[in-house]
């Protein structure tokens, strides 16, 4: 049966991958609610522009009147809430917008959803789900040992992770207090095609392709647990369709690597896929830069709950996912150039 899924932040990196998945693999109607901030780009969704199952609403998730209108107009069965300010460095230079979107925006989504859900007929009310997509950064950071799990206490370090932690608490409170059928996922760092060229993996690829220095924070020893975006998308669909209401599922790709290992892997893939005699070994472009303030040392995920309870597991290894990502960026340098220019215009 066809149903409607409301996706917030669908013009972002993960949201647009989710919408491509929903449009290509289900017969759902999809409503994309996105403000189109500097991070939003709809080029990866242009193929659906004339599809009657795809609907785009440019709106701010913190605008209650707009969110209420969108709920009553489209009557979604599922909400997948991804809209956020998502870049840690930006949260250090300008935290205000993180509070607005990640906290006030999530509160607004919850209130608009609750008002709509309360009046649904009983059989539909039971099927309604609100999935909040969050980050493992809410748990702070690890030393060399151990893993984050659903039981790890919250200890966010940056304004970004603190704002996401606040939004997670709001979502759980709306479930406990008002019985709104919510679920929360916390995942590790995503990578893949269409990622905004200010995040680590696209920065390394693009700088290397343009023979520019590849900036690596500190000594490059910080560890992230990399998750291929399409594996994340499959996990989100699994959770919203089969997860238990009120539960949290943490998602990881078994891809623990130091930032320096990531940079080396990209340089080696580029040497194979885009050899450049003028550069020789791409690794020579790596330049160590002053570390980020409050830089978390290591994130690593124990995803056994979603793996055993919901039977999800990643399909890509870091090697296979990285290779397709590098290929995609080589073939889409024009898109990257356009987004980098947009970023410069935005700053000007
Ligand atoms: N990228 C990752 O590695 C990662 C890891 C863990 C969790 N997450 C979470 O996943 C979600 C999506 O991340 P992403 O990397 O795709 O982010 P992104 O920055 O690429 O996209 C965010 C999208 O939200 C939109 N947006 C921002 N403010 C808005 C507002 N006020 N109203 C409506 N739309 C607004 C932007 O226009 C953009 O399209 C976020 O909630 C993020 O916290 C991301």
Topology diagram in text:
Layout: E1 4-8, H1 13-25, E2 29-34, E3 54-58, H2 64-74, E4 78-81, H3 88-93, H4 96-118, H5 122-127, E5 129-135, H6 159-178, E6 182-187, E7 190-191, H7 200-209, E8 214-217, E9 223-225, E10 227-228, H8 229-242, E11 248-251, E12 256-258, H9 259-273, E13 286-289, H10 304-309, H11 318-331, H12 333-347
Parallel strand pairs: 1-2, 1-4, 2-3, 4-5, 5-6, 6-11, 7-10, 8-13
Antiparallel strand pairs: 9-12
Helix pairs in contact: 1-8, 2-4, 4-6, 7-9, 9-11
Descriptive report:
The protein is α/β, with parallel strands linked by helices. It contains twelve helices and 13 strands. The protein has helices at 13-25, 64-74, 88-93, 96-118, 122-127, 159-178, 200-209, 229-242, 259-273, 304-309, 318-331, 333-347; strands at 4-8, 29-34, 54-58, 78-81, 129-135, 182-187, 190-191, 214-217, 223-225, 227-228, 248-251, 256-258, 286-289. Helix 4 runs parallel beside helix 6 (159-178). The longest helix is centred in the N-terminal third of the chain and has 23 residues, at 96-118. The model has no long low-confidence stretch (mean pLDDT 96). Bound molecules: nicotinamide-adenine-dinucleotide (NAD). The site of nicotinamide-adenine-dinucleotide has 30 residues, from helix 1, helix 4 and strand 5.
């Amino acid at each position: 049966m066809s149903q409607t899924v409301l996706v917030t932040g669908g013009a972002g990196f993960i949201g647009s991958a989710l919408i491509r998945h929903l449009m290509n693999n289900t017969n759902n109607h999809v409503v994309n609610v996105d403000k189109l901030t500097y991070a939003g780009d709809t080029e990866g969704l242009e193929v659906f522009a004339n599809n009657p199952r795809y609907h785009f609403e440019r709106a701010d998730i913190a605008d209650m009147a707009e969110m209420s209108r969108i709920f009553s107009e489209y009557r979604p069965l599922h909400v997948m809430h991804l809209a956020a300010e998502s870049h840690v460095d930006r949260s250090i230079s300008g935290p205000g917008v993180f509070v607005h979107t990640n906290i006030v925006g999530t509160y607004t989504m919850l209130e608009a959803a609750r008002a709509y859900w309360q009046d649904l007929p009983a059989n539909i009310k039971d099927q309604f789900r609100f999935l909040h997509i969050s980050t493992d950064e809410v748990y702070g950071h690890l030393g060399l040992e151990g893993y984050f799990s659903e039981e790890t206490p919250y200890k966010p370090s940056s304004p970004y992770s603190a704002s996401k932690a606040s939004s997670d608490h709001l979502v759980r409170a709306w479930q406990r207090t008002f019985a709104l059928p919510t679920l929360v996922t916390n995942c590790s760092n995503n990578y893949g095609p269409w990622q905004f060229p200010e995040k680590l993996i696209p920065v390394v690829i693009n700088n290397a392709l343009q023979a520019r220095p590849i900036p690596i924070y500190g000594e490059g020893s910080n560890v992230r647990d990399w998750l291929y975006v399409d594996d994340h998308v499959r996990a989100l669909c699994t959770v919203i369709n089969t997860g238990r209401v009120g539960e949290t599922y943490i998602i990881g790709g078994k891809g623990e690597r130091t930032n320096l290992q990531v940079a080396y892997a990209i340089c080696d893939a580029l040497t194979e896929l885009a050899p450049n005699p003028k550069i020789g070994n791409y690794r020579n472009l790596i330049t160590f830069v002053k570390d980020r303030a409050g830089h978390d040392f290591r994130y690593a995920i124990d995803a056994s709950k979603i793996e055993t309870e919901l039977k999800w597991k990643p399909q890509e290894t870091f090697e296979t996912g990285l290779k397709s990502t590098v290929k995609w960026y080589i073939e889409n340098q024009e898109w990257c150039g356009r987004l980098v220019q947009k970023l410069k215009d935005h700053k000007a």
